[in-house]
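Schema walkthrough. Field components (list of strings):
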Amino acid sequence: MKITPENARALQDELRTRVVLDEPGPPPGTGHLTGVDVAYDDARDLVVAAAVVLDAATLAVVEEATATGRVRFPYVPGLLAFREIPTVLDALDRLTADPGLVVCDGYGRAHPRRFGLASHLGVLTGLPTFGVAKNPFVFSYDPPGPRRGDFSPLIDDSGNGDRTEVGRALRTQDGVKPVFVSVGHRVSLDNACAHTLRLASAHRQPETTRRADSLCRRVLANESEGAPRN
DNA sequence: GCGACAG
DNA sequence: ATCTTGTCGC
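Field assembly_structure (string):
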């Protein structure tokens, strides 16, 4: 059956039962960290995904891969994964290196049904994943302290009086707006935040996201100006 | 019913 | 996400 915005929510509820939340994940500074991101050209119906593997100890680029596809799903808040994941999976498949821990541009558990992009990608690939988003989406938080490393809980208070912690607002640079970290698959929140801080030593956003973002934008620009596609 | 709402 | 130049500051 084709996935539509109507049945996508039910699919999320089903896939959510496969998320693993009781593993700490790889310790910071070891193995590989892979950033994934996507860029769109809606007018030309094009989508380009990028996967960039970094050495966790040095943050040096180990390998890059991209994939191009057609836009198959509209942007619907809460259903972002269905729009982004097909092309992201293609890009990951083109990697030779072990992706290690995957860092997504968006949410994991911080999602209306606790199954954001990072959770979805983790379940589909089996890889440890977490998400780092630029906005708090529908959640609330008290501003963390002003220094790099300060954080506060990201709260879902949409329920019946409950205030579930779904992630963290994490300050990655002194005096700069925090990023919003949440667990995807097979990683603890503490560990995800530790990785994020290491990856964001020079900028607000983690190096994984910055690298993947610039790569898919670059490729999309080339594809749009008539370069041969694959 | 209407508006808000990751990217 | 995307549309978009110069400009302020380290």
